[in-house]
């Protein structure tokens, strides 16, 4: 059986790795030219029940722990006046919670666990043609072609494979502007101390100013705004961002002043919380291709959980992959809906007029027994 995984992100690579552990070959088709062509991205907190569970199925727990940063769980929430509302300090030596790992380090970990020929680079899928007798023909940019018996779309928000199963498309939910402070410890020690080893969120009325420490010492700064009324092109200069926060405390706006280079704005999208499709033989979706979630910490974790669940089912029923896909899809739909609904609520809360109070309540410890 020829298995094609379209997309070499965390979901696609996790799927390929677990299949490989079970002696099942698969080819990952990745649009990037090389493994180093993609910007490394930010940091992720891997959850025990999803991302960490998938890495355990992949046999990569020890490798993960050698790269992860439990201290990265530390987070602070401030109001626009610079007052600290929440300061969570984790056990810096414990992996029992949700340790952070840089997205690039996690992707490298997965790539290094695969045979060299498991990933075919520079293959951007542009069309899929079902074969009359089953399976699919894949056409890539540049005229490259391939055939497969089983097709798994791990090709993200703008998935080409998704169109075989549903006409659902993502919708804009916010505007995100990103900046980077390359060496805060040396050049901006006050900013570095404020951010600490983990995450910081400044919560205002319908606007968030955040910062995240990466494993190499860089700090990623983010500005989140409602999609309506905040077109992306407005925020390509620091001055436009500083005008948004002109009444915030200078210790918070220092995050923008300290950033190197120009802001990078983009639109954040999500799928409907009730996304599902009718089963079709020989094809399915995982990760953002299946259920694009708001960026509140679940996207990568659920993509990896999808990959692990699908791989284990395929390995358990190699003679009946269609039954494995059906079982995976039904379990995934049931698991994802409450997570998608929760993610949508949290995202809306963070951009509400009362975000600071709402987030403090969200993080407040619940009494035992409630």
From TrEMBL:
The keyword Oxidoreductase applies. Residues 3-319 form the FAD-binding domain. It comes from the Bacteria. The keyword Oxidoreductase applies. GO terms for molecular function: FAD binding; monooxygenase activity. Keywords: FAD, Flavoprotein, Monooxygenase, Oxidoreductase. Pfam families: FAD_binding_3. This is 2-polyprenyl-6-methoxyphenol hydroxylase. It comes from Micromonospora sediminicola.
